[in-house]
Amino acid sequence: MRLWRFLATLGLTAWFAGVATAQQWSLAEAAKPYAGTTIKAIFLDRPGYKAAAKLIPEFEKITGIKVTNEVIPYENTREKIVLDMTAQGGDYDVVLVDVVWIGEFASNGWLVPMEKFYNDPKLADPALNLKGFFPILLDSFGTWDKKIYGLPFDNYAGLLFYNKCMLEKAGFKRPPATWDELLKVYAPKLTDPKQGIYAFALQSRRGETQSADSFMRMLWPFGGSLIDPKTFEPNLLSPGSQKGLQFRQDLMKYMPPGIVDYDHNEAVNALAQGKVAMITEWSAFNGTLTDPKSSKIVNCLGVSTEPAGPAGIKGALGGFSYGVNAYSPPERQAAAWLFIQWITSEAKAKDYIRAGGVSARMSAYKDPAIQKAYPFTVPMVKAWEQGNPIFRPRFPEWPAISEIIAQIGTEMMLGKVSVKDGAAQINAKVKEILSKAGYYDGKKPKLQ
């Protein structure tokens, strides 16, 4: 009994100590040494960043820290960051890190390991709760070599957005469950080129959109992959990869002309204006499609997981974390951390969602009110829980590989090279890049 009383007393003491610590820490107090500091963040012209912009005045009022931003087109973002980092300029204190840039940025020492901040009791909110992030998001977007370099901020799951009214008019009561069903059953009935109406739009503009959102999206559901996870050999000539890439070619006759020039905005707008019946797009664009100012199909919008292929539902995984620039001065690093910690916190998750963002916090989506107000979150959470963590390899060589896929993948879609020959060309170039980088002689780790 004495032992149990002792343990109980010890437990209560620890609990009260924790409560006291939590009560003692406040964002306002933590920010006092940095009041008057100005930090700069990279923004994209996407809903999650517009949502953050709505919340920033609250952070500035509490902390006295000024948060500025520069809106950069996605295709130019990595180049801007790399130029700043190689010059050790520290222009951007809050660094936007794509899922496929984390290996490059962390390996080069461009980001401050987050443990520097979350192990500092003066800077770390006791309610930080790293375990409260969806594991696949924290692992994929913010973690490299078992260290956390960023917290998930702008978070995407690939979803099927569709026009319920168009589908019902064509005789369909539900969206297609499989890619095969979409191609063979739905697409012919939903396409009318004379009226400028098409069944599907796959964003495929040359660049990361082509390599990730178009090319890679069609590999995994069909049992293919860019690289064999076991042998690390290029894998585009495998039966699954070939089937997926050929499927993309077959689907093109049901897509708008000029689809290789469609970026995200063009694909979303085509659905929003009633020009296409279905798109597979990032969850973050739900806000655009439900806004009466930008969408004609608000009352007809439906959303589900991406269709299944022979290998099951293997939806796209994408998104960004926010990290701290290793070349920024210490006071701006601390201020940047306080902003990142706050904007990604559980306390602000629902506010961020209501403002138009997509939080990475699990707790926010357990709220029935959030599920009812934002129906897209239900299939989105399902997609994150099923997971496809190596949708795109995260190693530092991805940017070089992405450029090759973007070029040859576009040529495939245009019919300038066959699916088989194009895959062989990409395989050869990928093997050359990875060989030079030391992946086959044991000098480098493989897929993370």
Automatic annotation (TrEMBL):
SUPFAM superfamilies, per this entry? Periplasmic binding protein-like II
Query: What domain of life does the UniProt record list for this protein's source?
Result: Bacteria
Query: By its UniProt entry, which Pfam families does this protein fall under?
Result: SBP_bac_1
The alphabetical list of record keywords is: Signal
The record ties this protein, via Gene3D superfamilies, to:
Periplasmic binding protein-like II
Q: Which InterPro entries match?
A: Bact_solute-bd_prot1 (IPR050490), SBP (IPR006059)
Q: Where is the signal peptide?
A: 1-22
Name this protein carries in UniProt: Putative ABC transporter-binding protein
From what organism does this protein derive?
A: Meiothermus granaticius NBRC 107808
